[in-house]
Amino acid sequence: MPEASLAADAERDGVAASIAAFEQAWMPSGHLLSVEHRVVSDRKATDRWILRFKGTEKDVIAIWLSLGQRTLSLEAEVMPAPEVNSEAIHALVLRRNAALFGIAFAIGPESGIYLVARVPASVVDIDEIDRLCGSTIEALEAVYPTVMSLGFPGQFRRRRVSQTPLR
């Protein structure tokens, strides 16, 4: 059986250009810390990018983008496999899925909790990358302290983030 071809050059170039434009627009803000591009040839993807953002609840939020045959996939780890209370955590994130648009919580192969998305490569532009990354960061930051406190009691302590600078 022949292998499916991966993204066409024009589609691949368009996605890469959109990610580069996103990086250029967001890097000066200080919220986007780095972008790493990896060219791969594992027959599942042609290119992968790791976008690292400065978080509020979680120090660094890493978002993986993978360009496949006709889709761009997103994955971001919310937390590793919980030590305890996994059923309560799974129920919590599944309930949150109902309020999300275009992304979803999922259980990874090693029982960690992830946010995932998949969009057609043909619709990827700077605005779509902004929407995907913004939605992912917002959803992750909203649930992170709760799931970490439930999954790792006694090890995780929520940071108190001041809304106003101290004088």
Structure, described:
The chain is α+β, with helices and mostly antiparallel strands. It has one domain: Yope Regulator, Chain: A. It is built from three helices and six strands. Strand 3 (about 60-65) and strand 4 (about 70-80) form a beta hairpin. The termini are far apart.
Task: Briefly note the CATH topology name.
Answer: Yope Regulator, Chain: A
CATH architecture: 2-Layer Sandwich
Supply Rg.
17 Å
Q: Order the strands across the largest sheet as they lie in space.
A: 1-2-3-4-6-5
Percentage beta strand: 25-35%
Taken in chain order, the helices and strands follow as HEEEEHEEH
Alpha-beta classification = alpha+beta
Oligomeric form of this entry? single chain
The overall pLDDT average reads 89
| Low-confidence regions | none
Q: Figure out the total of helices.
A: 3
Q: Helicity level, as a percent range?
A: 25-40%
CATH class: Alpha Beta
Number of strands: 6
Number of domains: 1
Question: Given the C-alpha coordinates, what overall shape results?
Answer: globular
Query: What is the rounded distance between the termini?
Result: 68 Å
Largest sheet: 6 strands, antiparallel
